[in-house]
Design goal:
The protein has about 475 residues and is α+β, with helices and mostly antiparallel strands. It has three domains: about 170 residues, no CATH class; about 140 residues, no CATH class; about 70 residues, Orthogonal Bundle (Arc Repressor Mutant, subunit A), CATH 1.10.10. About 45% of the residues lie in helices and about 5% in strands. It contains 21 helices and ten strands. A four-stranded mixed β-sheet has the order 5-4-7-8. It has a two-stranded antiparallel ribbon with strand order 1-6. A two-stranded antiparallel ribbon has the order 2-3. A hairpin with a 2-residue loop joins strand 2 and strand 3. About 15% of the residues have low confidence.
């Protein structure tokens, strides 16, 4: 067959770089989006944040009905002076009665509404966290022991885990020591007893039983303490199973004594070293603020989450003066315009989706979780004329600040359970009802999963016992036998 050239026409869908960037920004969280914008700011000299040179620029408001579109003026439609004017994004929070950003019934969120002169943040004193190891070594420094014992105690301190437990046996620790030191097992036991006398009480225990026992032995001896020590030493498994009748029979005590001993045991700290663990603080900047204004729940884009970007004036003027233009700068100018437009479009889409969610779940904002209605992504997609995958991207890692707290947008979506009347009830509402029923139950006669299922059935909600158990476990609520009290 001879080689030949052929022409073929076909249609296919191609994602332009601008569309790819728009999709990417839409699925990023606020933190990830800011990191991406910082990367663009470093790479593109024509892009800068609004007001970096100290000037203040006005802009269109971002209100409940949507944001004003910023039209791009081409070279053929505007003079050169118009070209050099920097493009900018601006969004303002609701004005007038909304200047306080949150009223007294809207939680504790303050956002950017605080006074610029408020320097409380700069006056905060951050205490230097002391680790468990440093705390124990500080006590070791004040302990009168030989240098050999001091070295062994320091070695044992290093072997403790974050909860303060010695999870490795003394025999295994002994095998890790060099033979030329001629360390005996008894010396490690002595070093461990020194650690167990340190603060916090219960440190250096090898089991939870030993940890609780150490804390009880450090207390002044009385009848309650002695009974609690017996229960911890011999009947801790029965106590965990709440088999109070068997404990009373084996320990030879009455209800009042057992109740007092049980209260003492539950007041102990099973993880004494955890208080010294560093806390990892995670801050969430909500993308949207929801408030009730004039009787209607309305969503607003959070100004703190909205980056204000514009074209750099100096580089734009240089590019406008060049007749033929600079290829590199022209490309970066187009890239900056794309980013500004895509960031604005991202927040417009988030605002539209959030307002649609608020409209469908307005009973939740009025009455709480028990009033949550079933909602799926397709329902919001059909209302707004968007693809279901777009709604999924919008609701992932985006947060809404409401008077009832801060929620991820995905929180408002969930499966449903049929009712006797032919309707549907949200799984979130059912979990809230289960939590209410268990919260108001008699501790001496807690409700079983079957009983909860029957109570819900009487309210017209058809829920199987297995479903109740699944929802209860999702709420981290123990089963009926572990909820029983004396």
């Amino acid at each position: 067959m001879k080689p030949a050239l052929q022409l073929k026409l076909s249609q296919h869908l191609a994602l332009t770089p601008q569309l790819q960037q728009s999709i990417k920004l839409l699925q990023l969280s606020t933190l990830e989006m800011n990191q991406e914008i910082e990367r663009y700011l470093l790479e593109n000299p024509l892009l800068e944040r609004e007001g970096e040179d100290g000037e203040s620029y006005g802009g269109g408001g971002f209100e409940a009905g949507g944001a004003e579109q910023h039209a791009e003026t081409s070279e053929r439609e505007a003079p050169a002076e118009r070209e050099t004017e920097p493009e900018r994004l601006e969004m303002q929070a609701p004005t007038a009665d909304d200047d306080d950003r949150w009223s007294s019934d809207a939680g504790t969120y303050s956002g950017a509404g605080r006074d610029d002169d408020d320097d409380n943040d700069s006056q905060e004193i951050h205490a230097v966290a002391t680790s468990l190891r440093d705390h124990l070594l500080w006590q070791l420094g004040m302990t009168q022991v030989s240098e050999r014992d001091r070295s062994l105690i320091r070695f044992m301190i290093e072997a403790l885990d974050d909860d303060g437990y010695l999870s490795t046996s003394l025999e295994e620790l002994l095998e890790t020591l060099p033979l030329e030191y001629e360390i005996e097992l008894e010396e490690l036991e002595i070093a461990l007893r020194h650690i167990q006398n340190f603060d916090p009480t219960g440190i250096g225990a090898r089991t939870a039983k030993e940890c609780l026992a150490l804390q009880l032995r450090a207390r002044e001896a009385d009848d309650v303490r002695n009974l609690a020590l017996v229960i911890v030493d011999k009947h801790l498994e029965l106590l965990a199973a709440r088999d109070f009748a068997r404990i009373k029979r084996l320990a030879g005590c009455d209800d009042d004594a057992l109740r007092a001993a049980h209260a003492l045991i539950t007041s102990l700290d099973p993880r004494p070293g955890a208080r010294f663990a560093p806390l990892e603080t995670r801050y969430i900047t909500p993308d949207v603020i929801v408030k009730k204004l004039k009787g209607k729940w309305t969503a607003y884009i959070n100004p703190d989450a909205y980056p204000r970007l514009r074209i750099n004036r100096l580089y734009a003027e240089i590019l406008a003066r060049q007749r033929r233009g600079n290829g590199n700068l022209s490309g970066q100018l187009q890239e900056a315009r794309w980013l500004i437009k895509n960031v604005q479009q991202r927040f417009e889409t988030i605002h539209r989706v959030t307002q649609a969610i608020v409209d469908r779940q307005r009973q939740f904002f009025e009455h709480g979780e028990v009033a949550m209605r079933p909602l799926v992504l397709r329902e919001i997609a059909d209302i707004l004329g968007l693809h279901e995958s777009t709604v999924s991207r919008v609701t992932s890692q985006k947060y809404m600040a409401t008077p009832r707290g801060i929620f991820e947008l995905k929180y408002f979506f969930g499966s449903h359970v049929a009712t006797d009347t032919g309707g549907a009830c949200s799984a979130t509402a059912i979990r809230a009802l289960i939590k209410q029923l268990i919260g108001s139950e008699d501790g001496k006669k807690p409700l079983s999963d079957s009983q909860i299922s029957e109570i819900l059935g009487q309210q017209g909600i058809v829920v199987a016992r297995r479903t109740v158990a699944k929802y209860r476990e999702a709420l981290n609520i123990p089963p009926v036998n572990l909820r029983k009290t004396l």
